[in-house]
Design goal:
Elements lengths: L2 H11 L3 E4 L5 E4 L1 H5 L11 H4 E5 L6 H5 L5 E6 L6 E8 L6 E6 L4 H8 L11 H37 L10 H13 L4 E9 L1 H8 L1 H17 L6 E4 L4 E7 L4 H15 L3 E3 L2 E3 L2 E8 L8 H17 L5 E3 H7 L12
Parallel strand pairs: 12-13
Antiparallel strand pairs: 1-2, 1-6, 3-4, 4-5, 5-6, 7-9, 7-12, 8-9, 10-11
Helix pairs in contact: 8-9
């Protein structure tokens, strides 16, 4: 078989071959190999001028190259991009040259990217095709997995947020308040806890229905958000009961001013479907600094006592637990807040 027939056969079977004569001059290269250097004709050049032998390192001449029949070669193209290649040399009969079959090996992905290769550039039996399919499938699977994980994380965050949110008002719920209060107590930041109860809320429900009651709760929640800072926590802990935790704020004058603004705004009539809803607010406040060894139940109870005192004195007012403590009245009020 002459070199022309051999070259045509090799183009079908191994499109990355190099056919060299006995002097190492390139007679013909496969179409995929030529595609790596479309503007540079490889035929007619010396093999060692186009390719740099990386391993075995001792090979410096064409004759030494020809002696490596059956050995694995590691090569690179001399110019850039200097794509890494693997090769196997098979001498032709009667010393008339050799066929060097090349492949990309693990650099297949870089080669596909750098030279825009497709499946048509490889032999149908080349494992590179299977590798490309596997890589593509893996990439698609990883992308699908990332997308699924993002959706799951989003769903988990949404579920966690929902579990800590009062769905009617959008405020934190009792569970969230307990968690935040626990964090504050375990830390060193002082805080104030304000317990707010809506006066006459039951009459709104009884006279105008639960839709009106829900509207009043939502409006009250919005007022509390507007009158507090972003670092404060506003929670609905019962039907018409709320807790506001003021992180880092223990100034009684400032707290009384905040309570005063809340009371003034909450006693203004609220219009719902041509009905005028009237409520007010009673508020009790306790400070974390009033306790030697603070516990959540302790400060909540103290704020409750102050709230009961505000109710006892006529509602629509604010009471500080510190004032009760000074008068020696702590623990003397019993019962639950009422309208």
């Amino acid at each position: 078989m002459d070199t022309g027939d051999l070259g045509a056969l090799l183009e079908t079977l191994c499109p990355m071959f190099v056919l060299v004569d006995e002097t190492g001059r390139i007679l013909r290269v496969g179409p995929t190999l030529q595609k790596l250097r479309p503007d540079q004709q490889m035929a007619g050049k010396s093999f060692v001028d186009v390719f740099k032998l990386v391993r075995p390192r001792a090979v410096k001449s064409v004759s030494a190259l020809m002696s490596l029949a059956g050995a694995k070669l590691h090569l690179k193209l001399h110019d850039t991009p200097s794509t890494a290649l693997k090769g196997l040399i098979a001498p032709l009969p009667q010393g008339k040259g050799a066929v060097i079959n090349l492949s990309f090996g693990i650099s297949i992905l870089d080669a596909v990217r750098d030279y825009a290769l497709t499946s048509a550039d490889f032999s149908g039996t080349d494992l590179a095709i299977e590798l490309l399919y596997l890589v593509e499938a893996k990439s698609a699977a990883m992308e699908a997995s990332r997308s699924l994980n993002l959706r799951l994380q989003g769903a988990m965050l949404a579920a966690e947020e929902q579990a800590l949110t009062d769905m009617l008002t959008g405020l934190k719920n009792r569970r969230a308040m307990d968690v935040f209060l626990g964090h504050l107590i375990s830390g060193s930041t002082p805080f104030a806890l304000m317990h707010l109860d809506l006066d006459y809320f039951k009459s709104v429900n009884d006279r105008f229905g639960h839709a009106a009651g829900d509207y009043v709760l939502q409006q009250a929640a919005q007022i509390m958000i507007e009158e507090t800072r972003s670092d404060d926590t506003v929670a609905r802990i019962g039907g018409d009961e709320f807790v506001i935790i003021f992180r880092g704020l223990i100034d009684e004058k400032v707290l009384s001013a905040v309570a005063g603004r809340l009371i003034e705004r909450l006693k203004k009539p609220m219009e719902f479907e041509s009905n005028t809803c009237r409520i007010s607010a009673s508020i009790g406040t306790a400070l974390s600094t009033q306790f030697v060894s603070l516990k959540a139940a302790e400060i909540l109870h103290a704020a409750d006592l102050a709230l009961y005192e505000a109710k006892r004195k006529g509602r629509s007012r604010h009471a500080l637990y510190s004032a009760l403590a000074e008068l020696g009245q702590e623990g003397t009020t019993t019962g639950t807040p009422s309208e």
